[in-house]
Amino acid sequence: MAKKPSKRPISSPMPARSPKKSGSNTGVIMLILLAVVIGGGGYYYYDMQEKERIRLEKQEAARKKAAEERARKAKEEAERIAREKAEQERLKAEEEARRKAAEEEARRKAEEEARRRAEEEEERRRREQEQQQEEPDEEPEEPEQPTEPEKGDYDDSVDLTGTLSRADREKFAAMLENLLKEGNYEEFSKAFTQKTVEAVRGLLGGSGEKLNYHAYRSSRNLMNSVELCTLINYAGEAGLRAITHPEDAGAIKGASPEKGREFIRWLVNDRSRPLHAFIQNYMLQEGRPQNTAWSIQTLYKIWLATPERDRAKYLNLAIACSLVNPGTAQSNGSMRNPKTPALTMPEVFEYFRLRDSKRKLLTDVKKMSVARLLMVVDARLNRSEFEWVEKNLSYDRASWASKAYNSIKYLMERAKNGKDPYTHYTFEEIRKEGGVCRDQAYYAANTAKVMGIPAVYAVGDGDRGPHAWVVSNDSETQWNQINSYGYKTGTYSNPCSGRRHHESMLLLQTKKEKPGQYDGAADCIALSRFLLSNGNVDEARGAARYVTGAFPTLTAAWSNLVEMLGQKGGSEVEMGEWRRIHNSLGVQSRKNTELTDIAAEVEDKYIISGRSATGKKQAMDRSLRQLRRNGGEERSDLVVEAIGRQAAMLAENSDIRGLYSLYRKELKGYTKRGDVFGQLLSQCISNYEKAGATPRDWAQLAKEAEKLFEKEIRSGGGDYFKLTKEVSIQKQVAGLYANAGNAKKATKIAADADERLKNAKKSE
Fold first, then answer.
1. What are φ and ψ of residue 9, in 5° steps?
2. 3-state secondary structure 621-674
3. Does the predicted TM-score (pTM) go above 0.85?
4. What is the pLDDT of residues 68-91, one digit of tens each?
5. CB–CB of 367/323 below 8 Å?
């Protein structure tokens, strides 16, 4: 075994190292240390450079961000200043419009006050003259009879302007007698018109644009002439000769040529001024010229049957009965197979006159305006229905419509399956069998009318589908909705013009009626139409302008002005005037939403007609925003019409993309209003068809409509009426898929809609 090396003794000294070897190790170490120092310094230098670079980048980024922030704030500040400036300008324009309206109102009141004082002074002078002419201690002298004008000699020496003297009245009376004797009404109108027009020009000023209404109102002969010529122009010679020169005097009970002429004398000369009141209300109610002959003959029949003492007392009632549209007045109303026909308008007048004289009505028809009486006398009922109400119903005025409506039980079977339990559709049958909303509203409105309470049958659409309710004049100052579901879409029909009005026109009336509050408007509308019928367009415009200044919220005033300005034959109407009219209508529409319709007509016909498609769209967008600000929720019907005008322009240009963009936005905005959503979708479908949409276009629209329906409109269907509205929209969506060529999807959606409605009918 090899021998292990022996260990060195502890005490033995360490062996000495070679000097050469020790120096070599130290150099290596130094090199390493040097490398570490150099590397560390390089790293430190690199690290410092990197940190500096990062610091500079952050500083640059912060600078840029600060600059962007300053630019953003500057832009926002500029936009804010621009908005504030625009708002200030808008407020300034509105304030200016209000100021002008206030000034105009003050001017009108001043004119009315001056007119009243002048009339009182005129009446005082007339009485003094009559007292001076009276000689109680002596036999009165027989007044000199005026020379009767020869046939056709109507205008010589007849003074038309100024306060009437006795000689003036006698000349006009002699002229009227000649007219009644000869019956040549058209010849009279032609011969006397020029003199009348010349007299009117003197009241319009040099420019022909500013009417001196006080002077016109004070010129009784002139006003009589205008009204008589207007009656002749509207009723025609044949219509008037049927009264004064009837071929068969027995055609009207109690009629004769002598009675007919006495009626015309009464119409023109009576102190109650019947012709004046008739023409005024014909204008305010926008009566149709072609109905005038029927109306004046109806008034004649009423006059014949009325005691002389009551003719002036019940004049408004008589005029209201004569103004009911003949299409309505000559119908039997809603009754079926009546045993006796509905009362004629003279019989309706007689019924209310006698009931009022016995104080059996809940209102005083002697003090009521023609406008409100029209909503009483248009009840188309036979005598047994009138008598049934007298015997069976007894409510007070304030609660009549409400109690009558709610007294009729709701007949769900009629709503679901169309059950018709009526034979004659009398009040008694309705109360016994019950009915749906339209039967309840018919019963409530017409029984109220029988008692002299003005009421209208209103209809509208909403989330629960079509509905009928009543708007009733519960007091002298207040109209109220009865059982409207909270709908604000109700419309009713004007018994005279047949025009549809929004119920807000009644609900906004909160003041007691003032007799003659619109006399000035009616007089000047009649004057403008007389001038227009004789080709004096500029003069007609002057009279029409006066009306809108004095009565800035009256629908008939603005409608008349726009018609006058749109007539050919006069001087050219400047664009500035059309813009002023459009702006004024926008301001006044806050008080009368019907003016929005007229504003839209002005914009379409006279302001944007020559603009580019882009310009038209911008103008329509502004109008739509203004409409929404001025009560778009209450007048959604006007919003839908405004959208329709934009869509019609896009459809005319076959702009499907524009149509889709417009309706996509509007449909999204009305998902909470099923009625509006459905109307817009129907409107969209119509415009897509006009624009020539392709199946691909229809498919895009169908997907969007289905998405909105499923997400926002479709419900669990607990309310049968709400579900019915949903189903109608669902079927519209099915129709969109059918137009897109996707018959399978269309059939599936329609089947689902039918199944939902079927289940709802079972569950109720």
1. -65, 150
2. HHHHHHHHHCCCCCCHHHHHHHHHHHHHHHHHCCCHHHHHHHHHHHHHHCCCCH
3. no
4. 888 888 888 777 787 777 777 777
5. no
